[in-house]
């Protein structure tokens, strides 16, 4: 019964990867390192997945990668653009072991697979797609060569490089609302290429997953932004992802949505 309802209402597929036993060893660059409660993280991830499912997304689980502490941040391993999955080449070499599993997941989704090649680096958290425009963060994890290779692989789309600073990825600092409007932290992105950026002051207020035409998923750590968006008429689902935020994660990097 649940599956039939799922199929009728589905808006697309959502690729996720459950946290592994080594999650607490994940990379921390910007947060202040603190112990991560892995059991709590597992529960938070289940609630995150349930929120996607409730919004009509069909869940596809990538094979666990228990030896890769950061593998739960599955978005960073690949970029899906139409029927193509571009496998990233993480700027932090400690994350390169995640790519093989991401390739299997992409093939299971029936996607054509391309890849970023050396000397390019690219992590999916640096790629924000808004309609036919692809914003690509250029910073610690994604380099100029990675941006150029991605631009060639997603030919036909307008690629806008965005310099990022003081954050892990572009989508740590900026995402988009269902109407395509950009929302984010102006101190962390080059606003000269982002006209109309709606400014938020809560760090997690910059992170939206668009679940539907008037529905976003946000972290519970951005209550003021959530209230503002609700007042503007959006439906906001909030989830507590504290254990992932402790590892510089946010709601976007825990899934890849394939409309
Ligand atoms: N912990 C996520 C990353 O640094 O890549």
TrEMBL record:
Pfam families given in the database record: DDAH_eukar (PF19420)
Domain of life: Bacteria
SUPFAM superfamilies noted in UniProt: Pentein (SSF55909)
Keywords noted in UniProt: Hydrolase
Alphabetized NCBIfam families for the sequence: DiMthArgaseDdahStm
Similarity comment text for this entry: Belongs to the DDAH family.
Protein name in UniProt: N(G),N(G)-dimethylarginine dimethylaminohydrolase
GN (gene name): ddaH
């Amino acid at each position: 019964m649940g599956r039939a309802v799922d199929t009728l209402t589905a808006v697309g597929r959502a690729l996720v990867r459950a946290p592994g036993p080594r999650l607490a060893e994940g990379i921390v660059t910007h947060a202040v390192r603190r112990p991560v409660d892995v059991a709590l993280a597992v529960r938070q991830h289940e609630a995150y997945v349930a929120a996607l499912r409730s919004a009509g997304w069909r869940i596809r689980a990538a094979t666990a990668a228990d030896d890769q502490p950061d593998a739960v941040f599955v978005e960073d391993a690949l970029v899906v653009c139409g029927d193509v999955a571009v496998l990233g080449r993480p700027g932090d070499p400690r994350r390169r072991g995640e790519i093989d599993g991401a390739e299997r997941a992409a093939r299971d989704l029936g996607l054509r697979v391309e890849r970023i090649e050396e000397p390019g680096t690219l992590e999916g958290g640096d790629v924000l797609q808004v309609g036919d425009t692809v914003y690509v963060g250029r910073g610690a994890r994604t380099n100029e060569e990675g941006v150029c290779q991605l631009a060639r692989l997603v030919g036909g789309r307008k690629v806008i490089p965005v310099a990022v600073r003081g954050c892990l990825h572009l989508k740590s600092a900026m995402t988009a609302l269902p109407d395509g409007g950009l929302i984010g932290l102006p101190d962390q992105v080059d606003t000269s290429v982002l006209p109309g950026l709606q400014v938020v002051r809560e760090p997690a207020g910059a992170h939206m997953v668009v679940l539907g035409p008037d529905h976003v998923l946000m972290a519970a750590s951005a209550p003021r932004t959530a209230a503002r968006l609700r007042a503007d008429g959006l439906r906001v689902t909030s989830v507590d992802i504290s254990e992932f935020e402790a590892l510089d994660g946010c709601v976007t990097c825990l899934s890849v949505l394939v409309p």
